[in-house]
């Protein structure tokens, strides 16, 4: 009875919040592919699933522009509406919870044979996980009308991603997805490990290279803003910034803001993060990249620790933290944490200052305080 109640609730939710979408699934076979679809909006088609009917002659997948006399405007599975949460791809592929492998295996083998995906000019939207889990090295185009969730194509290692010059919001340069005017970079959709941001880019958008496979990024002098977690959770990363950049610099593998003193990105060397002397504050959105962190050295220049400063730090336990300042930095009142069960080392002359500032963490057992 419990499950029936849940199903009924979901149905009511669908009726209330998706009144213009027909839930009646239909199928259309074209060539060696079968498309499951439903009517979307007043006069559109939403393809929710693609079956590959053959094993050979499937190197090119051409999505139809019209089905049943209506234009195809959307691609992707039902209820796939949040890029933070995993969902099946349009082929029905997913990551198994048992062994982390891509399943179903038979479907994955067929998808591997596709080398080129052609999207029609009618498509306006793809769901966040529409092409998730597909193998690297394929070609895809972004038509003029497609603007929703285009950035979700980043990180999938396309051989070539081409955006129509008529697209009103995006352009592509060397598989980087940029804003139409080239001033914003949203992410990288290619296979190379070294990325060079073109001159003219002024903003690296939030989570632009989050969990990316890249190993090196070169930032030009034109970049004025690096947003929250733009370089977070990258396995191994080297950063190079133009010496002519007036806003950011890199030292000891860390990026800092020349103007605000904010730590922008921290990259460990042999497991150690050495925060530069130019850093005065830790704020929400700091990018942590480069794998496991065993030790963090904070400079005497550090004056403030803000909430969620270590949100993208993959090492959350037993990290050795060394503070160089004789006076503890000020700390936001809520949502501020050090890595759990960390050993915190402070100067002997500053022990009382740190004991007062870190009192709650010490009492909760989150950290232990030591002197040097």
What features would you describe in this structure?
- This protein has 372 residues and is mainly β.
- 10% of the residues lie in helices and 32% in strands.
- The protein is built from four helices and 32 strands.
- The strands form eight sheets. Strands 1, 2, 3, 5, 6 and 10 form a six-stranded mixed beta sheet that branches.
- A hairpin with a 2-residue loop joins β5 (66-67) and β6 (70-75).
- The chain is elongated.
- Mean pLDDT is 92; it is low at 1-22.
Quick structural overview:
The chain is mainly beta and 372 residues long. The protein is built from four helices and 32 strands.
Strand count: 32
- In angstroms, what is the radius of gyration? 25 Å
pLDDT averaged over residues? 92
Category by helix and strand content? mainly beta
**Level of helix content?**
under 10%
Strand-residue proportion = 25-35%
- End-to-end separation in angstroms reads 63 Å
Give the overall shape: elongated
User: Which oligomeric state applies?
Assistant: single chain
Characterize the main sheet: 6 strands, mixed
Low-confidence stretches: 1-22
The tally of helices reads: 4
Describe the SSE topology.
Elements: H1 2-17, E1 26-30, E2 33-40, E3 44-52, E4 60-62, E5 66-67, E6 70-75, E7 94-95, E8 102-103, H2 105-112, E9 116-118, E10 125-126, E11 139-142, E12 160-163, E13 170-173, E14 176-179, E15 184-188, E16 194-196, E17 203-204, E18 216-219, E19 225-226, E20 238-241, E21 248-251, E22 254-257, E23 263-266, E24 272-274, E25 281-282, E26 287-288, E27 295-298, E28 304-305, E29 320-323, E30 330-331, E31 342-346, H3 351-357, H4 359-364, E32 367-371
């Amino acid at each position: 009875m419990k499950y029936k109640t849940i199903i009924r609730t979901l149905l009511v939710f669908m009726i209330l919040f998706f009144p213009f979408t027909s839930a009646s699934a239909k199928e259309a076979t074209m060539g060696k592919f079968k498309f499951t679809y439903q009517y979307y909006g007043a006069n559109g088609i939403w393809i929710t699933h693609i079956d590959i009917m053959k094993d050979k002659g499937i190197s090119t997948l051409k999505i139809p522009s019209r089905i049943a006399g209506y234009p195809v405007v959307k691609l992707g599975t039902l209820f796939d509406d949040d890029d933070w949460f995993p969902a099946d791809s349009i082929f029905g592929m997913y990551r198994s919870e048992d062994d982390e492998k891509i399943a179903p295996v038979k479907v994955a083998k067929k998808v591997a044979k596709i080398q080129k995906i052609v999207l029609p000019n009618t498509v306006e939207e793809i769901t966040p996980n529409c092409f998730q889990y597909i193998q690297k090295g394929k070609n895809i185009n972004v038509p003029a009308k497609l603007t929703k969730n285009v950035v979700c194509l980043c990180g999938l290692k396309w051989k070539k991603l081409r955006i129509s010059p008529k697209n009103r919001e995006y352009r592509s340069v060397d598989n980087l997805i940029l804003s139409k005017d080239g001033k914003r970079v949203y992410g990288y959709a290619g296979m190379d490990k070294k990325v060079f941001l073109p001159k003219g880019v002024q903003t690296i958008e939030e989570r632009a290279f989050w969990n990316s496979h890249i190993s090196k990024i070169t930032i030009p002098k034109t970049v004025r803003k690096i947003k929250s977690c733009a370089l977070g959770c990258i396995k191994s990363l080297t950063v190079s910034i133009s010496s002519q950049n007036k806003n950011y610099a890199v030292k000891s593998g860390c990026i800092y803001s020349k103007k605000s003193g904010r730590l922008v990105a921290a990259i460990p060397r042999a497991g150690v993060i050495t925060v530069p002397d130019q850093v005065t504050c830790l704020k929400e959105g700091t990018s942590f990249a480069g794998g496991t962190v065993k030790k963090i050295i904070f400079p005497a220049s550090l004056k403030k620790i803000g909430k969620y400063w270590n949100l993208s730090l993959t090492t959350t336990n037993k990290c050795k933290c060394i503070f160089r300042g004789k006076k503890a930095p000020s700390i936001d009142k809520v949502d501020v944490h050090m890595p759990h069960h960390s050993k915190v080392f402070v100067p002997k002359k500053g022990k009382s200052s740190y004991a007062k500032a870190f009192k709650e963490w010490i009492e909760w057992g989150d950290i232990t305080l030591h002197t040097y």
